[in-house]
Specification:
By secondary structure, the chain is α/β, with parallel strands linked by helices. The protein is about 25% helix and about 15% strand.
């Protein structure tokens, strides 16, 4: 195991991260769509309202009970694709997010800034997706490179203040049960550390992880063969019946005569992150999975999309045609869902798919790709996973690599046997 995990702490990765702004469960789906679009992650944490009882000080357990779950774009599109929502889209967008989010408060856990990174990774390996970390007014972090830059913005370190106690990084606690000096933390302000943040940190420490980064994902056992898929000829709405959680994605595939899967695209939370949710919901409800990902264009006259407009006076909310003054008329295309098709004449998923190129093309790598290359792919595309194809045939799907698979590989003791990934 690399020493970088032993000598770094959670606080090193959170310096400069924005303060958490809670999104409560009574907010509307329309507000959630806007919040997800502005978020640095393709999903937002949903909370119950904080108690206003006078004199009540909220502890970690109370905070944990208020956390509901994480709402992602695929959950929203699947909900909007329901018949009742398609019939009254304006009403659907006013639905409280409490009716859409999948409750699961095990996805977040509170830890202290002084928690060792190795302990934090072990927590994430158990299924926790985000760590809630108290903001530290004195924390500067061990690693200078991470204390000055976050999300492309320069961070000005707080001037030295003799009245502020800074945790002693040379004698830091070995587990999350230990708490740094209270004056160094602000328990009313928090930030979230995601698995993407961890991968971004690891990219800057590739030398310390040697020889893992240059090893193939196949040799490291990082490929998870237990993925969810849907046949291209099946209705796309089947993807909403039982949405997988880790990752929240379906591979859209063709089956070869010998039973293998050829990947055409994907229906996933990360692909739908900044899409037109109403257009995507209609497409999910009315098209096949192959048509959905291939970006069907203008020859759907028999199944045309209901006109949708932008309301001119309510902050840009998306509503169904009628009742609001239209700013512009909209029709369905791959662009409205968020996909591009550079070959509009190719309308079927069975023909000419090799000519198709565009945003809906799934993010893939080969089984022989290096771990470093896969991590770089995920970060550059802001993806939660990469589909893995056969080393000899790049169209044949053999599995995927997600956050959990990478964390398992980099924290595995050297010489430990490679275990088969568990299905989720």
């Amino acid at each position: 195991m690399a020493s970088v995990f032993l000598y770094h702490v959670v606080g090193d990765l959170t310096v400069g991260k924005p303060e958490l702004v809670e999104f409560t469960e009574n907010e509307t789906l329309e507000a959630a769509i806007k919040a997800i679009g502005e978020s640095t992650e393709c999903g937002i944490a949903i909370w119950k309202r904080r108690s206003v009882q006078k004199g009540l000080i909220e502890n970690a357990e109370m905070r944990h009970q208020r956390f509901v779950g994480i709402l992602n774009p695929l959950d929203i599109v699947a909900f909007l694709a329901r018949d009742d929502c398609l019939n009254d889209q304006e009403k659907a967008l006013k639905t409280p997010v409490s009716e859409v989010v999948v409750p699961d408060n095990t996805l977040m856990k509170e830890v202290d800034p002084g928690t060792r990174l190795i302990d934090a990774l072990e927590i994430m390996k158990q299924g926790v997706r985000r760590l809630l970390v108290p903001k530290s007014i004195g924390w500067r972090g061990m690693s200078k490179r991470f204390s000055i830059l976050y999300n492309g913005k320069w961070l000005k370190n707080i001037d030295s203040n003799p009245n502020i106690t800074i945790p002693n990084i040379n004698n830091r606690p070995s587990s999350s049960s230990s708490t740094p000096t209270p004056t160094a933390l602000r328990r009313d302000k928090y930030c979230c550390l995601s698995r993407e943040d961890v991968i971004r940190f690891l990219i800057g420490c590739l030398g310390a992880l040697a020889p893992l980064p240059l090893s193939s994902i196949s040799s490291l056992g990082a490929i998870n063969p237990n993925y969810c898929s849907i046949d291209a000829s099946c209705p796309a709405i089947e993807a909403s019946r039982q949405i997988p959680r880790e990752p929240s994605a379906f591979a859209v595939v063709d089956r070869t005569p010998d039973g293998q899967h050829t990947i055409l695209g994907e229906i996933s939370a990360s692909k739908l992150w900044k899409c037109d949710y109403l257009a995507a919901a209609w497409a999910l409800a009315n098209l096949s999975a192959g048509q959905f990902v291939m970006g069907v264009e203008d020859n759907l006259s028999s199944r045309s999309l209901p006109d949708m407009v932008l309301a001119g006076t309510n902050g840009g909310s998306l509503v169904n045609g009628g009742g609001a003054r239209p700013l512009r008329q909209r029709t369905f295309s791959s662009r409205s869902v968020g996909f591009f098709n550079s070959n509009p004449s190719s309308h079927s998923f069975g023909d000419n798919r090799s000519m198709y190129r565009g945003r809906s093309v799934p993010l893939t790598c080969k089984a022989t790709s290096s771990l470093a290359a896969v991590m770089a792919q995920m970060l550059s595309h802001r993806a939660t996973h990469v589909w893995v194809t056969d080393a000899e045939n790049e169209e044949v799907l053999v599995g995927l690599v997600g956050y959990a698979d990478i964390l398992a590989v980099v924290t595995r003791p050297r010489g430990a046997p490679i275990t088969e990934p568990q299905s989720t």
